[in-house]
Amino acid sequence: MLVLLVILHVFGAAFWFGAVLLLAFVVEPSIQRAGGEAAAAVGAQLARRIPPAMAGAGITTILSGLLLFGLDSGGFNAGFMRSAAGQLFLLGALCGFAAVGAGMMFPRVSVERGVVFARISAAFLACALALMVIARRA
Ligand code: HEM
Fold first, then answer.
1. How is the chain split into domains, by residue range?
2. pLDDT score at 111
3. What integer pLDDT is reported at residue 2 of this predicted model?
4. Measured in angstroms, how far is the CA atom of residue 39 from the centroid of ligand 1?
5. Dist CA 125 CA 85 (whole Å)
6. Which DSSP string do the residues of 3-24 spell out, in sequence order?
C-alpha cells in the first residue's frame, strides 16, 4: 500500500515538474516568439487547459506527500520532525507549496510575466525534488 502511495506521489511529481519545465522553457517562449493572432489563440487555449492539468498533478503530489510524511514520521512525531530527514522533508514540502503559489500566478498575468512565474515554479519544484531524494537517504 505504501509503495503504491510512493508511486502515485512520484508520478504526480514527475508530471508536474516535467510539464512546468516544458511550459517555462519550450512552449511559452515559442508562443512569444511566434507572436500575432495564432500566438494569442494558442495562448488563450493554454490558459484554459493548463490550470486544471497542473492542479490535478499538484494536488495529487501534495496530498500523497502529506500522507507519506504523516506515515513516515509516525504521525508527525516530534523526534522525527527534529531529525535531519524530518527537516529536509519539511523544507521540500515548503518548496512544493511555494511552487504552487508561483504556478497559480501563471494564468493571471501576461505571457511575458507568466514565463517568469513558470520558471520560478520550476526552480521550487527542482529544490523540492532534490530535498525529497536527500531526505529519503538522510
Ligand atoms: C507537501 C508537499 C510534499 C510532501 C509533504 C512530500 C513528502 C514526501 C515523503 C514523506 C516522501 C518519502 C516517501 C517514502 O519513500 O516513504 C517523498 C518522496 C518523494 N518526493 Fe515528495 N513530498 C512533497 C512534495 C513533492 C514535490 C513537489 C516533489 C517534486 C516535484 C516531490 C518529489 C518526491 C520524490 C521524487 C520522492 C522519492 C524520493 C526517493 O525515494 O528517493 N515531492 N515525499
1. 2-136
2. 75
3. 92
4. 36
5. 18
6. HHHHHHHHHHHHHHHHHHHHII
User: 36 CA distance to ligand 1 centroid (A)?
Assistant: 41
Euclidean distance between CA atoms 34 and 40, whole angstroms: 10
pLDDT at residue 112, rounded to an integer: 80
Q: Which of 63, 68, 94, 132 to mutate to test the pocket of ligand 1 (most atoms within 8 A of CB)?
A: 132
Q: Per residue in 2-39, is it b (16+ CB within 10 Å) or e — as a string?
A: eeeeeebbeebbebbbebbbebbeebbeebeeeeeeee
Dihedral in degrees, nearest 10, Cα atoms 27, 33, 37, 40: 40
Mean pLDDT of the chain: 94
Counting Cα atoms < 13 Å in the Cβ hemisphere of 110 gives 3
The distance of Cα 58 from the centroid of its chain, to the nearest Å, equals 6
According to the model, what pLDDT value does residue 54 have?
93
User: Tell me, what's the pLDDT at 91?
Assistant: 98
Are 100 and 38 in contact by the 8 Å Cβ rule? The answer is no
Indicate which residue's Cα is closest to atom 39 of ligand 1: 133
Specify the pTM: 0.93
Residue 42 has pLDDT above 80, yes or no: yes
